[in-house]
């Protein structure tokens, strides 16, 4: 099987490598099993489509598979992980014609499928606080942490998580979302290497922080199963859940993002940040990132078309005015 090389995709994988090592450190060898199953299933699906329709197998596949694996909770059954990536690769990418033609991000398509189809394993089975594992060897000697059979809520639900723990990664959550520090380092690396557009990232962060700050400063309270709870502070919201991972590694996908104009990139990134806060605050989907990305992906082609059309009309009027 010949796999088409893509240097930009390889750069993204380098940026994700620290998160993979952290997932192994915090949650044990189950992450390696999940990553292996997801990559093997994704590769098989893309190869079968290649054999049938002649689509190319590209290195972007491994980025999609790695991102999907990192977005999963540590106790996710392996067969659900396999079903998710199969759906994401086939229906989120290959049915559109393969890499470069897909509308939606394949990794987030896969996550949305399992999030809707298998709600309990995706939202309730988060591994307990990783701080009890110690600094070394942490979970390196186990299949999963000591909380193998214990369910705990994501930090988006439970309040009072120490900010430093959220920043470093000593908290509950999905495989790749716990350490804001490593996400920032990997994200800055791919921006430096021009594998991700900084305008989309900055627009996402600014819009998210601005709206979250407005809600927090106004004292807004939301109804949860625990009663009325105040909206999280901007830093806690930023470091909790998978927003940072999505802002650097998912929303910047060169195919499904708005890429035609700088104005489109700013609007696209801002749309994602605002939608994430709104969905987190006012819907029953506590994470928000998954559906915010899919909605932004859906509007990206229309956004590019409108902005390019407006730019062309402005240029045409300028040319007519100059001729007159």
UniProtKB/TrEMBL annotation:
The keyword Transmembrane helix applies. The keyword Flavoprotein applies. It comes from the Bacteria. Keywords: Flavoprotein, FMN, Membrane, Phosphoprotein, Translocase, Transmembrane, Transmembrane helix, Transport. Signal peptide: none annotated. The chain crosses the membrane at residues 12-32, 76-96, 108-127, 166-191, 198-219, 231-251, 263-282, 288-307. NCBIfam families: rnfD. This is RnfABCDGE type electron transport complex subunit D.
């Amino acid at each position: 099987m010949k796999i088409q090389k893509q240097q930009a995709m390889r750069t993204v994988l380098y940026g994700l490598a620290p998160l993979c090592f952290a997932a192994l450190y915090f949650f044990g060898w189950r992450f390696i099993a999940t990553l292996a199953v997801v990559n093997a299933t994704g590769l098989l699906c893309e190869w079968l489509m290649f054999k049938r329709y002649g689509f190319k197998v590209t290195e972007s596949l491994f980025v999609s598979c790695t991102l999907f694996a990192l977005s999963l909770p540590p106790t996710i059954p392996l067969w659900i992980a396999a079903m998710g990536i199969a759906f994401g690769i086939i229906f989120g990418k290959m049915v559109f014609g393969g890499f470069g033609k897909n509308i939606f991000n394949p990794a987030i398509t896969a996550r949305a499928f399992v999030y809707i189809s298998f709600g309990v394993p995706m939202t309730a089975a988060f591994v307990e606080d990783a701080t009890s594992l110690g600094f070394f060897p942490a979970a390196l000697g186990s299949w999963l942490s000591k909380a193998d059979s214990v369910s705990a809520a994501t930090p988006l639900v439970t309040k009072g998580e120490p900010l430093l723990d959220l920043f470093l990664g000593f908290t509950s959550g999905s495989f790749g979302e716990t350490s804001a520090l490593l996400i920032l380092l990997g994200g800055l690396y791919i921006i430096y290497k021009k594998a991700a557009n900084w305008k989309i990232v900055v627009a996402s962060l600014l819009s998210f922080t601005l709206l979250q700050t407005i809600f927090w400063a106004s004292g807004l309270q939301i109804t949860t199963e625990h009663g009325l709870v105040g909206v999280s502070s901007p830093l806690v919201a930023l470091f909790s859940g998978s927003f940072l991972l999505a802002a650097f590694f998912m929303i910047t996908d060169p195919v499904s993002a708005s890429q035609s104009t700088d104005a489109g990139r700013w609007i696209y990134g801002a749309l994602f940040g605002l939608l994430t806060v709104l969905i987190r605050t006012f819907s029953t989907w506590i994470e928000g990132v998954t559906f915010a990305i899919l909605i932004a992906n859906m509007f990206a082609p229309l956004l590019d078309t409108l902005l390019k059309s407006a730019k062309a009309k402005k240029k045409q009027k300028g040319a007519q005015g100059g001729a007159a």
